[in-house]
Amino acid sequence: MALNNLSALTSPLSESQLAQLQQATAGLDAVQTAWVSGYLAGVSQGPVTAAAPTQSAGQSLTILVGSQTGNAKGVAQELAEQATAKGIPNQLISMADYKVKAIKDESHVIVVASTNGEGEAPDDAIDLHAFLASKKAPKLAGLKFAVLSLGDSSYEFFCQTGKDFEQRLQALGGEIITERLDADVDYQEVTQAWFDKALTAVEATLEKAGTSTTAAVATGTIVTENKYNKQNPFSASLLTSQKITGDRSAKDVRHIEIDLEGSDLHYTAGDALGVWFKNNQNMVDELIDKLGLDATKEVTVGDNKIALKEALIEEYELTGTHPGFIEGYAALTENKALQKLAEDKNACRDFANNNQVVDVVTATGNDKVTEENFVALLRRSSPRLYSIASSQTEVEDEVHLTVGAVVFENEAGQQRGGSASTFLSHRLQEGEEVKVFIEDNHNFRLPANPDTPVIMVGPGTGIAPFRAFMQEREASEATGKNWLLFGDQTFNEDFLYQVEWQTHLKSGLLTKLDLAFSRDQAEKIYVQDRLQENAAEVFKWLQDGAHFYVCGDANRMAKDVQTTLIDIISKQGKLSLEDAEEYLTELRQAKRYQRDVY
Amino acid sequence: MSQKLHDNERIKIESNFLRGKLVEGINNNTTGSFLPDEVQLVKFHGLYQQDHRDFRAERKQQKLEPLYSFLLRARLPGGVVTPEQWLEIDRIAEELTDAGSIRITTRQTFQYHGIFKRNLKSVFQELKFKANIDSIFTAGDVNRNTICTSNPEQSELHTEVYELSKKISEHFLPKSNAYAEIWLDGEKVLDTEEEEPIYHNIFLPRKFKIAVVLPPYNDVDIHANDLNFIAIIEDDKITGYNVVVGAGLGMTHGDKTTFPRLGDDFGFITVDKVMEVAEAVVTTQRDLGGRVSRSHARTKYTLETHGIETFKKEVEKRAGITFAAPGAYEFTERGDRIGWVKGIDNKWHLTVFIENGRILDFDGKPLKSGLVKIAKVHQGTFRMTANQNLVIASVPESEKDNIEKLARECGLIDDGTSDQRIDSMACVSLPTCPLAMAEAERYLPSLTDDVEGLLAKHGIAKDHIILRITGCPNGCGRAMLAEVGLVGKAPGRYNLHLGGNRIGTRIPKMYAENIDEATIVSTLDELIGRWATERNQDEDFGDFVIRAGIISEVVVAARDFYA
Question: How many angstroms separate the CA atoms of A257 and B110, rounded?
Fold first, then answer.
């Protein structure tokens, strides 16, 4: 039978597979055709062990994910599952695990990337992001790609990393096959439509190999084995909420213990716990009262009808105001002052950052507001992630968190607070239920080798994962040295888990503990100052193979620590600043420099 | 003696003349405390490690160590400071202590409360280099701050006893350079074989207190001291001293082998023999004193164990003297003479009452900033008294009105302060003292209110009773020389002692055990009521309760105190 006469109607192949088959065999001579027929016969009789023909014969989709808190990873995972369901050969890979030079061999790429606070790439994405902007970046003619970026529109550089990737891939010759999606905090409502578009575009252009309709989904380390997840969280109960800052501290930091019994949830030191929270009922009452709405009136939430009050407590974001709300509310109420504010993007963002929804509606007339049109302006709430402060080898069915309750006064002097942190710290009573799930963080892991030394920089609540690390290393009797750098405002009141660190020092588990308390003396002292004071030793540890971890504030601390670290490497290693940066890059690529910053 | 020495003896001997691991302890910034051995050693440097007991339980929950801080007691023989020193003392309290207060103590000096470990060296250095004050040997098993009678009127005599107290204080200082090395970044003196001629490397078995006394005032409470030199005055000149040895007020609840004890008068010595005798008493106590049980280690028990005569003979031998028959003297009072007096030198002296000795800016009574204003214009000195009060001494006639005005403005002079309040005293106790069993300083003001009320109720509002509270049986508040003495037993619970006398030469005996505050007041209500109606002319409360048979007299403590 001549291949030319084949049609989809008379063969089990799809149009595109047929096209590929025809293309693949078009130029073959008689000998080659005979070999291929023999090969195909062999294939039809046994399992395919050689993947080579698949690769040479067809293209596949690579989904590259750069995630910080795990949201992007979740989205990418869903995308990969749907691609697989559609029969698109694909591999999902974290940018952190991706060999950057391989980009030139890709035919189809979908980038899923989140953005850090001030527009920087998440840690996973730093190397690829930098590589694509560097002189070493290859030409990418023939690459077909699309970008899904995740962000938070209350930040100035909304979805910046995704924008960067699109711009760079395009500049290198790549072709955009689907318009970029810049998804906000409520991304789950918009991603599905984009998946459909993007995967259709991939399907239309992907040259598939005939034999390979379902290439293995190389989700690698991203696979999660827990049966509960973000969409299907476990109803755990609060065991303990204990304030661990002293009576005279300016801060209210809680040690939270949650019971996971019956969930079979497991986590590894370095993972985060996702927490679904409920908004403060008093604040919701105040909001409804201000708007003059009916608390019991039902509103549409997704496919459900829920009473307004319940919807506002459970379903919507009320503490992190986004500029879109101000814009929408200004338009709805025709409030001149707010409308003027909404025109100035920067001012509007600042205002949104500093005012919760209940305080935005304070000063404005609201006779046009209804239950339904008000909730339509709001974003759906999303769970908060907290670095886990315990190791299951130590606490078994429990999970511990270190939560700083965010509490402040609004302009009118009323007390306001962060939604999840005050939910966990103040509103949730011991024994009550809280919906949680485990968020894996494979980019924050103890060294596989128990002899490897670790340096841990975790000021403030950044201490959390290191408590887990130490529990883990103690339980596994790891012999590697452990160096912790902690800092906060005051020694007396803010030395989180002081007694535990003292015990670890005494037992020898903790090799070295350096402390920086900023307010105990005239001059401010921070963890990076302690690093600098110990420059020679830091460098020696690194030369001895130490892993270096940073957890905590992304905007200032993590940057200052990194600058200091580069300085230390440069001076101690007698390297140029550029070479020192390269040294750090290599550490990061070797997973010896890991950060969990927020 | 085969009994094992108390572990503190090991600590002293191993400490390399009180250095121990103090430097490492100071540099360890992961804890606000020292290791157990060093907690004992810091006392010799004038510090007590304490923790804020109000927060103890809460901080345990918070996974925080106790809120450690230190009490620093200055060495100030005779309690005299200049206005320039006062301003520095005030500033250091403000900048480097948590309590922010200057607390005058029964040891005629001042204490800082709430110094965090990280600030210790700064406090030591500021005190030394800005105010020329140290805290060497103000605690620990050594001669503590030497005190003397505050007698502003007789300025020449006061100068003499004050100079003697300074001389004694300096004589009993250590030869070791440890204090300067550790706290003042002084050079390490190497290559010198250090030795302590008086203390050796074992120091004393227990604390040792010396007072120089100028009758007729017993403000120093001679029966709280191991060694007293009581001036014998003829024709306005000090001819010599009676040597009274072996007094002390501490005891242990439930241990009847411990008791407060009056001193024994060994007899008279001439002025030129004071230093020899002082050293002989100290070294005799060093060699004979018990070192097995710290609650039986003070000089008073050495006298009981070895016999008064044995001890006295040993002192005579070591000092190369023979005690003459005691000279005659008389005590007429113990409290401070609050208000202005004119000295024989024509200078004016203002004694101000400081409740609990605590100098701080209180609501409506900014004592601390008021004293700063006074220090800025004052040309004389400040003298702390053993009753925790303050004398603004040597004010020229021309400045008197101005000082009075400033003192009134800040409440240092308050005409509303009753004699009862002036006669009331308490130790620090909770929340900082680690030995405290019950409130003392924080309880005294309200108890004084109650007693004032009872006196008024029974129609004798102008009368007063020596009233003292001490938070534990160790006795810093000197309740064992009060007419009404309360000794802390448990939170809100006290042993009530009755029957001391006004001049402080009789020990009160326990009348009621472990009673609460309401019972204290109802008991006093009944007794004051009886005193008001049944007393003889001018009969003091302490004398009345003995004569009326309410309590029996303690004549010899070892025999009578628990009888």
Answer: 47
Residue-wise pLDDT for B126-152, tens only, equals: 999 999 999 999 999 999 999 999 987
**Bridge partners for A400 per DSSP:** A257
Between A97 and B425, the more confident residue is B425
- What is the identity of the amino acid at A412? A
**Chain B contacts of A485, Cβ < 8 Å?**
none
pTM over 0.90, yes/no: no
Whether B410 is catalytic is: no
Backbone angles phi, psi at A79, to 5 degrees: -60, -45
Please list the residues that pair with B351 across neighbouring strands.
B339, B391
Which of A242, A244, A505 shows the shortest C-beta gap to B30?
A: A505
Rounded-to-integer distance, Cα A324 and Cα A155, Å: 12
Does the annotation mark B286 as catalytic? no
Residue A413: Cβ within 10 Å count: 6
Query: CB distance from A525 to chain B under 8 Å?
Result: no
Q: Is A497 on the interface with B (CB under 8 A)?
A: yes
Across the interface, whether the CB atoms of B30 and A502 are under 8 A apart is answered yes
Tokens of B72: 């620093």
Inter-chain contact B63–A502, Cβ cutoff 8 Å? no
pLDDT for the residue B421: 96
* Interchain contact, A243 vs B59, CB within 8 Å: no
Q: Tell if the CB–CB gap between A244 and B58 is shorter than 8 Å.
A: no
Instruction: Note the pLDDT of residue A73.
Output: 87
Q: Is pLDDT above 50 for A46?
A: no
The residue behind tokens 């037993």 is B489
Under 8 Å CB pairs connecting chains A and B tally to: 45
Residues in Cβ contact with B121 at an 8 Å cutoff, skipping those fewer than 6 apart: B26, B183, B185
Condensed to tens digits (0 to 9), the pLDDT of residues A293-312 reads: 999 999 999 889 999 999 99
Contacts of residue A513 in chain B, CB cutoff 8 Å? 30
Backbone φ and ψ for A283, nearest 5 degrees, come out as -70, -40
B71 Cβ contact list (under 8 Å, min separation 6): B47, B48, B50, B111, B112, B113, B115, B428, B432
